[in-house]
Amino acid sequence: MIRTKNISFSYTEYEKTEELDSDDMELIIAAREAALNAYAPYSEFKVGAAVRLESGIIVRGANVENAAFPSGICAERSALSNSISNHPKDKPIAIAIASMTEEELTDGFPSPCGSCRQVIAEEESRTGNNIKIILSGKNKTQIIDGISSLLPLQFKRKNLQINLP
Ligand code: THU
């Protein structure tokens, strides 16, 4: 029996910042500020991410590049490594991402790369929480409810088929 299955997802787009929830706006501002601290001399593409934890704490990260290119890290993984390392029991509930070139916010949305999607997925699995993903362009914002929309049919710890705590 052959079956074709469809996966669809929805996201919300905001055309005006005034339409955003104040918590989401606060997280976007933190992500924009974080982008200013990026070390991106090679791509000149600065990305900032801000993770909101259940307690309300906001943890920031930026992309950090390296002359040996693969050694660099994206803003999303930088922020999540920071939050997991410093607040392992405080679960992330949202992440905002902003990007800029030449000190100007980009018009387009900084969609997380594949590796960052996988890391966000692992964090959702580890904590059992959905992580709201807020993609912030210069004027518009897209909000996605959780990583399964951006990474359907994801590889999870259960795929390893070994006994884990
Ligand atoms: N980058 C991020 O920080 N996050 C993403 O989701 C996409 C790409 C960084 C990696 C590299 O430093 C620069 O942007 C250009 O790809």
Any overview of this molecule?
- The protein has 165 residues and is of the alpha+beta class.
- It has a single domain (12-155), classed as Cytidine Deaminase, domain 2 (3-Layer(aba) Sandwich), CATH 3.40.140.10.
- Helices cover 27% and strands 23% of the residues.
- The protein contains 4 helices and 7 strands.
- The protein has helices spanning 22-36, 75-86, 114-127, 147-150, and strands at residues 12-14, 45-53, 58-62, 92-101, 104-105, 132-136, 141-144.
- Strands 1, 2, 3, 4, 5, 6 and 7 form a 7-stranded mixed beta sheet that branches.
- Strand 2 and strand 3 form a beta hairpin.
- The termini are far apart.
- The model has no long low-confidence stretch (mean pLDDT 96).
- Tetrahydrodeoxyuridine binds at residues 40, 43, 45, 47, 63, 65, 72, 74-76, 110, 112-113, 116.
- The site of tetrahydrodeoxyuridine has 14 residues, from strand 2 and helix 2.
What structural category characterises the helix and strand content? alpha+beta
Note the gap between the termini: 37 Å
**Could you list the spans in which at least 5 consecutive residues all have pLDDT below 50?**
none
By DSSP, the count of extended strands is 7
What CATH architecture label applies?
A: 3-Layer(aba) Sandwich
Shape: globular
Helix content estimate: 25-40%
The total number of structural domains is 1
CATH superfamily: Cytidine Deaminase, domain 2
CATH fold assignment: Cytidine Deaminase, domain 2
In CATH, what is the class?
Alpha Beta
